[in-house]
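Example 4.3 (complexes with small molecules)
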Amino acid sequence: MEREIRVVFVHSNGRRECHLGRDGESVMDVALDNGVPGILAQCGGGCTCSTCHCYVDQSWYAKCGEMHPDEVDILSFTPNRRSNSRLSCQISLTRPLDGICIYTIDESDKE
Ligand code: FES
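Answer. The structure with FE2/S2 (inorganic) cluster bound is encoded below.
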């Protein structure tokens, strides 16, 4: 299947990059496939590490769906958590998310 769902990553310095994902892939998958800085995903999407933490643009946040309790647990221990925090490995791409805007977090801010 062709990659057709756009994911826009915005970095803290204002740089933006747009990459394409497939229905069912996660935002983390798209980030890793394209070497997007700030999303390390050390547990490979297992929802156990929080190194894929990101901020979802407020206008897109509600479209990402409810968080699984495991994600809520992990985020409760994650530094720099905000109201629009998500684990990018838990955001599954669907057509309505085409163009989703994700703010990455510098490694220095994750300490
Ligand atoms: Fe580890 Fe998302 S990759 S929690």
